[in-house]
Amino acid sequence: MFNLRTWFTAALLASTTLATPALAADTAPSALVRVAPPVHRTLSEQLTGYGTVSAATGEASDVALPRAGRLTRLAVNAGQRVTRGQVLFQFATGAADALAYRQALANLALARDQNSRSVQLYAQKLITASQLAAARKALIDAEAALRAQRQLGSGRTTEQVKAPFAGIVTAVSAAQGDYLAAGVAVLKLQRARDQQVQLGIEPEDVTRVQVGMAVRIASVFNAADSVTVQVAAVYGTINPRTRLVDVLVRLSGAQAHFLNGTRVSGAITVRTEAVTAVPRSAVLRDDRGAYLFQVRDGQAVRVAVKTGIEADGLIAVSGPLDPTLPVVTLGNYELRDGMAVREAQR
After folding, report:
1. Mean pLDDT across the stretch 7-27?
2. What pLDDT was estimated at residue 59?
3. Does the pLDDT value for residue 20 go beyond 60?
4. What number is the average pLDDT over the span 288-307?
5. 58: left (phi over 0), alpha (psi -120 to 50) or beta
6. Looking at residue 156, what is its pLDDT?
7. How far apart are CA 39 and CA 278, in angstroms?
8. So what CATH class is 30-42+274-343?
9. Domain 47-57+192-273 classified CATH 3.20.20.70?
10. Parallel/antiparallel/unpaired status of strands 340-343 and 30-36
11. Least confident of 7-16, 148-157, 159-168, 265-274
């Protein structure tokens, strides 16, 4: 009985000893990770600024009349789009300008009569040649004075002023019924074809911006509403209102479709490179610098890298990484060099 118990105990100990290496191998620590392959991609570094769409410099005109009078009807409001030839307002010529026109007519009629009589008298040798020349000069002066009054429009009692081009009424500076002096603007009209944006860029970044660089202008309320244009000018002083440096962008033709006052963002492409890139989450940092993990034969391999441009969720990397091995993008914070890993199924 004793021998049988002794033999059973010895056999149990032996079997336990033999199973220990296999059990240890099965329970070796490993990490569940997600991986992605390195990619070769062209990435662009961008600076983003914000601004407001406005009329292009030189594309806005004051609409005024060169004579005094009363604004009898105002047909448009600020912010309204108008077509070429559309009535903007109606204007009644002032009494003084109307009188000046009638006086110019009367002076011309008198000068013509005097010149006609002077020609007859000169033919009869009753006046001198200098007197005839004076009469001709008076006629010429009277004709010039009447032409000037007609150019001013003083002969028109009322006038409908029409838009000289298609555009947007950006400001109305007079009210219906106002009496206006000659040359006072009734409204400001901006051509619809050209606009501009002044993007605010941080002063420390502005030296990287150059004329001709591509800029993607997009509405901050609708990123899909965008156009790609170029930097037109880079200012050399800090805007005292925004404390940023202004970068000028011009929109023309079909590009100028934003409403004035639209708040937009501008992504300026300052650098473009063909690089090896990995997802941003793959790169970690510690006191030794930037690094990532690649997976080789089921084990994590730490690789020191240098980073570059970041765009579209990717970051450029360079260093002794193997472009054929995947990089760990999720679960990499738990890894150590040489640690076993299991790839998660997507």
Report:
1. 47
2. 64
3. no
4. 95
5. left
6. 92
7. 6
8. mainly beta
9. no
10. parallel
11. 7-16
Q: Judge whether residue 2 has pLDDT over 80.
A: no
Distance CA 40, CA 30 (A): 30
Judged on CB neighbours under 10 Å (0-12, 13-18, 19+), 305 is: buried
Q: Quick check: 194 and 57 in contact, CB under 8 A?
A: no
User: What is the four-CA torsion angle of 95, 100, 102, 104, rounded to 10 degrees?
Assistant: -170
Whole-structure pTM value: 0.57
Whose CA is closest to 99, among 67, 75, 121, 74? 67
Helix (H) or strand (E) holding 141, with range, is: helix 129-152
How long is the chain? 346
| DSSP E strand stretches across 181-335 | 185-191, 194-201, 214-219, 226-238, 245-252, 263-279, 284-286, 289-296, 299-304, 306-311, 314-318, 327-330
For tokens 């619809």, name the residue. 192
| In the predicted structure, residue 29 carries a pLDDT above the cut 80 | no
Does residue 187 contact residue 63 with C-beta atoms inside 8 Å? yes
Question: Hey, what amino acid is at 182?
Answer: A
Q: Where do we find the tokens 């760990």?
A: 328
Is the Cβ–Cβ distance between 266 and 201 less than 8 Å?
Answer: no
Tokens at 192, concatenated: 């619809």
Domain ranges of the chain: 30-42+274-343, 47-57+192-273, 60-190
- Which amino acid is it at 56? A
List the CATH code of the domain at 60-190: 2.40.50.100
Give the mean model confidence (pLDDT) for residues 188-210.
89
CA nearest to 265, candidates 198, 208, 207, 205: 198
Q: Which of 139-148, 189-198, 240-249 has the lowest mean pLDDT?
A: 189-198
